[in-house]
Amino acid sequence: MSTSKRERLRQERIRQAQREKRRRRLVLVSVCLVVLVAAVATILVQMNRTKPTSYAGDLAPVSVQEDGTVVMARSGTTKPVLDIYEDFQCPICKEFEHINGAQIKQFAAEGKIKVVYHPIAFVNPQGSLRAAAAARCVPGDSWTAFHDELFAKQPDERVALTVDDLKKFADDAGITDSAVLSCMESQRHAAQVQQYTQAAFSSGVQGTPTVLLDGRKLPDDQVLTSSGLRGTLENATK
């Protein structure tokens, strides 16, 4: 091979090596950018997901229905209807309540929506059932306080709530009526909760929280962000 051919071959190999080096550098930069964008997006989502709303005003009237559902609404407010299927031992339900509970109360208090809570037993076979059955013992004027205590003091989902836990939460919520505490102790409504839970799953509920607005299931980006749910409710009440 002549000297000129060897030189051309050497130069071509150098150019190939340089092109490969540039390609690897571009791949590395692209991967880093993807990771960075994903990290920033995750941080922003988490910041939005965990930012709670606040409301310190009066609540709309609350009434416990025969089937165990609980309605929060001003007199005459019939729609839009926000249905909330929740489990008191569900950690995502706790997050939903932390983020959106206050603004849901505010929308109901302002007569803009009718809220229907559906406590079911799904996450912890024993604890979820005990908690939902206990909630059915509580009258409407104390129900919201007990509901909020259950989520505020929710244990790890693998640790079943006991009747003693529930009676302590009732006391913390200002519930002292012996008939209510006796009802919790006896778990009088446990069978009804089981039946209602099965009916909920038969109707299409697949987990908790499940949130419906006028019968339409809301996606997670609306359910688990305060801005998403607020925007959805504001659009529905225009």
Description:
The protein has 238 residues and is an alpha+beta fold. The chain has two domains: 1-49; 62-236, 3-Layer(aba) Sandwich (Glutaredoxin), CATH 3.40.30.10. It is built from nine helices and six strands, in the order H-E-E-E-H-E-H-H-H-H-H-E-E-H-H. It has helices at 3-49, 91-109, 127-135, 140-152, 163-172, 178-186, 190-202, 220-223, 226-236; strands at 62-64, 70-72, 81-86, 114-119, 210-213, 216-217. A six-stranded mixed β-sheet has the order 1-2-4-3-5-6, covered by helices on one side. The longest helix is centred in the N-terminal third of the chain and has 47 residues, at 3-49. Mean pLDDT is 87; it is low at 30-45.
